C-alpha cells in the first residue's frame, strides 16, 4: 500500500507544477544558482616514475663521462678511483711498518742510554748552582759554605785562560816567523 501512496504523491506533485506533458525539459546537472564557477583544476605532479627516469638518464651520462679515458691516454676517473681504493690498504701497511720500526728503534735507544755508564763528574758553569733552591723555610746559617768550591773553579778558570794565552802566543809567533 505504501508503494501506491508514494506513486500517487509523485503524480500530484507533477500535476501542481502545471507543466504540459509534452514540454518536459531535459535534466541539467549544473548548479541553478545563476552563476557558473570555473571547473576545479587538479594539479597532478609528475610522479616518481618521471624522476626515476630522469635520474637514471643523468646518472648514465655522468658515468659515461667519467668512464672515458682522458686526453693523451690518461686513465679514466673511475680507474683512478679504483686504483686509489685498492692501494689504500698498502699505504696504511707501509705507514704502520715504518711506525713500528721507529718505535722499536726508540726503545732500543732508550735501553742503550739507560744502561750506559754515567759520568760522575759534572762541570759547573757558575758556583751559585749549589745554592739554588727555595729560600723559604730554611733557617739562617744552614746554607753550605761553598768558598772552597768557588776557589777551585776560579783556579780552573785561570789555568784555562793561561793555556789559551800560551796557545795564542805560540800561534802568533809561528805566524810572525812565517812572514
TrEMBL record:
Residues 8-40 are annotated as: Disordered. Residues 8-19 have a biased composition (Low complexity). Residues 22-31 have a biased composition (Polar residues). One of its GO terms (cellular component) is mitochondrion. Signal peptide: none annotated. Transmembrane segments: none annotated. It comes from the Eukaryota. PANTHER family: OXIDOREDUCTASE 178 KDA SUBUNIT, PUTATIVE (AFU_ORTHOLOGUE AFUA_8G04320)-RELATED (PTHR42100). This is NADH-ubiquinone oxidoreductase 17.8 kDa subunit. It comes from Chaetomium fimeti. The lineage of its organism: Eukaryota, Fungi, Dikarya, Ascomycota, Pezizomycotina.
Amino acid at each position: 500500500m505504501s508503494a501506491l501512496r508514494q506513486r500517487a504523491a509523485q503524480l500530484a506533485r507533477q500535476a501542481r507544477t502545471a507543466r504540459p506533458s509534452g514540454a518536459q525539459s531535459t535534466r541539467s546537472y549544473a548548479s541553478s544558482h545563476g552563476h557558473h564557477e570555473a571547473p576545479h583544476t587538479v594539479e597532478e605532479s609528475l610522479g616518481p616514475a618521471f624522476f626515476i627516469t630522469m635520474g637514471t638518464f643523468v646518472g648514465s651520462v655522468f658515468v659515461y663521462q667519467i668512464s672515458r679515458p682522458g686526453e693523451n691516454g690518461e686513465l679514466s676517473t673511475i680507474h683512478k678511483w679504483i686504483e686509489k681504493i685498492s692501494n689504500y690498504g698498502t699505504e696504511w701497511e707501509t705507514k704502520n711498518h715504518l711506525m713500528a720500526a721507529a718505535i722499536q728503534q726508540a726503545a732500543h735507544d732508550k735501553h742503550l742510554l739507560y744502561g750506559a755508564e754515567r759520568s760522575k763528574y759534572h762541570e759547573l758553569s757558575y758556583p751559585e748552582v749549589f745554592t739554588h733552591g727555595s729560600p723559604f723555610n730554611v733557617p739562617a746559617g744552614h746554607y753550605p759554605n761553598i768558598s772552597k768550591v768557588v776557589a777551585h773553579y776560579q783556579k780552573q778558570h785561570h789555568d784555562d785562560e793561561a793555556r789559551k794565552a800560551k796557545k795564542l802566543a805560540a800561534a802568533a809567533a809561528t805566524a810572525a816567523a812565517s812572514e
